[in-house]
Amino acid sequence: MAYSVPDLPYPYDALEPHIDEATMKVHHDKHHQAYVDKANAALEGTDFDGKPIEEVVANLDSLPADKQTAVRNNGGGHLNHSMFWESMKPGGGGEPTGPLADAINATFGSFDDFKAKVSETGVGQFGSGWAWLVHDGSGLAVVGSPNQDNPISSGLTPLLGVDVWEHAYYLKYQQARPVYIEAWFNTVDWDKVSERYSAVA
């Protein structure tokens, strides 16, 4: 079955003032839709047509050579954005609690140090890409990825990602990527991130 863009789990304006309604409409309705359309077209007729996007992105090398780049870019874009919408909620932000909080503190020293690492990674990502909190099989790490690459392709489990493509923030923040990332932390759904952590920890 072909992929489709999931509905946002909240209204377009629900993340104001941190992420504006106009950006959410363009980002979700236009950019994500384009990734889905191109991923569906690239996978049509292959053995991976209709398989879960996580499985496809984890096995890019198994795709026909002439399909790999299109699926990496557009299948990755679909997976990344599907996670991104679910990682935010109205009234989000604050800090995680429980085992995830303990793991963050143990790995990075403190929640503030973790935030600084994510921001540094996102700001330092040249051009377009993402900054991720991942589980690497033994513990937590923060990594960056270019374009629409997903950590799954490298054998990592993504728990939280911040989109640092300009289309994610330029209407409101222009070139001020650090300001956008700081604001984005006010939208994070730590309950969802904790669920993902509990599934792999």
**Largest sheet, described in full?**
3 strands, antiparallel
Distance between the termini: 31 Å
Which CATH-level-2 architecture of the largest domain? 3-Layer(bab) Sandwich
Arithmetic mean of pLDDT: 97
**Cα Rg:** 16 Å
What topology, given as strand order, has the largest sheet?
Answer: 2-1-3
Content-based structural category: mainly alpha
CATH H level of the largest domain: which superfamily? Iron/manganese superoxide dismutase, C-terminal domain
Any idea what the shape is? globular
Percent of residues in beta strands: 5-15%
**Residues in helix, %:** 40-55%
Order of helices and strands: HHHHHEEEHHH
- The domain tally reads 2
How many helices in DSSP terms? 8
Poorly predicted sequence stretches spanning 5 or more consecutive residues: none
Short recap of the structure:
This protein has 201 residues and is mainly alpha-helical. The protein has eight helices and three strands; from the N terminus they run αααααβββααα. Helix 1 (21-43) packs antiparallel against helix 3 (65-86) and helix 4 packs across helix 5.
